[in-house]
Fold each of these.
Amino acid sequence: MRPFTFTLCVLPFVLGGCAGHHEHHRQMMGAGMGGGMGGHAGHAVATPPARTDSSLAMLPSGYKKVVAPAGSRVYFIDLKNGDTVASPLTVHFGLQGMGVAPAGMEKEGTGHHHLLVDVDAFDVNAPLPADARHRHFGAGQTEVSLTLTPGTHTLQLVLADQNHIPHHPPVMSERITVTVK
Ligand SMILES: [Cu+2]
């Protein structure tokens, strides 16, 4: 389960120091290691996406979901599938094509971040639950210091509207698996 290429991939993080120096990581990621849209074949087993139903433009309650502009995306700025990390780990949330607004604020083209930890299915047609596995960043935060138990965990970002309901279409990152030392 630990091919040699995987070790090589992790090495720059060890050298860079995982607890700090995020700017360094970001530059390095931007320069050479991709923006989180696949293309890391051979590094780690792919993490299947979380299961969701198709997004409805309007919920059965009559609630009209906030529309996400075409091409909008959320992504992990400096984490990718297969990474080995130390806990606590600072996770930076990237957002393209939309803006961040605090929960409760209705503003076109915005939403707030949610981090799903070890979630393999969720409802894109309902408010996201709020618990240890579904973290809300309703103040408009774009990063978190995350404490994880040793072992493997999946992480996924989902943007949601002022009422914590995912957009239409949903704006969510790929789901990744990280190994915590
Ligand atoms: Cu929320």
Note: Residues 4-16 form the longest helix (13 residues).
Amino acid sequence: MSFKNKTVIITGASSGIGEETAKAFLSSGAKVILVSRSKEKMEASFQSYDNSQCVIYPFDLSQLDKIDSFVSTIIKKEGPIDILFNNAGIGSESLFEDIDLSVFHEVMQVDYFSVVYFTKSILRHMIDNGGGQIATNTSVAGLITSRKRTVYSSAKFALHGFLDSLRLEVGKHNVDITIIAPGKVITNFGKNKLDSQGNPFGKNSLMPFGLSSKKAAKIILKAIKNKKRQVIVSKWGDIAWFGVLVYRFFPSLYFFLAKRIDA
Ligand SMILES: NC(=O)c1ccc[n+]([C@@H]2O[C@H](COP(=O)([O-])OP(=O)(O)OC[C@H]3O[C@@H](n4cnc5c(N)ncnc54)[C@H](OP(=O)(O)O)[C@@H]3O)[C@@H](O)[C@H]2O)c1
């Protein structure tokens, strides 16, 4: 799969799905711009790559008012962007009755608003350049609901509405919108997700049955290459697939089961 001469921005490139997707893009010949808060982690993970192919831009995406000038700086230095992969995100797990509402703001800021702001900034440049592709990592939690995910599903469902609507507007500018909706992928996501008070869980609860982030990256590159509208990134037989199908075709059964299962 070749992305030779393409320039890709990946947010959340210091870990998990973003890190592996960045490495897969690099292997396929793309120039990759890595964005996340941790400069050290990105430097350590990408030290074996050529600096001209792989450029690090540390940034905290919760600084929404700085995203536009951040994107302009990248474009001024690195040239036109062909693909944006909005990947960065944080999870949250708590009953709504227990949650401090500040957690809603924190998660919505990164998982939803930073995507809207980043997309808005890059879109202008893509339109001026004659087109591009915006891929976004949402989640199966943006397609189906489960207990203790009021915050996370709010952000990810909002992304689906935003992106499906945007797709209808930007096709005429030759800009493609691809939704990447993972089920369970083995990363540090579970360790970093926030509890009811906004503290990271600190340990990974994701079961070993998830997809490896390397396999997830392979599926993501293929979906981007084929300009897919939406792809579910999950092992066949994963509860995510079962959930999506039951939610769609047997909604009453879905809610009967989902009340009783901690997914
Ligand atoms: N793993 C799964 O099972 C799963 C399932 C469905 C959806 N997803 C989605 O996949 C995406 C990637 O998650 P992952 O599983 O790879 O988790 P991860 O290993 O925890 O990676 C999350 C990435 O997001 C970055 N990030 C978080 N907050 C940020 C901020 N304020 N500014 C800039 N970067 C920030 C982190 O970098 P820094 O800490 O260095 O900033 C890190 O690189 C997320 O959007 C998540 O919702 C994951």
Note: DSSP finds nine helices and nine strands in the chain.
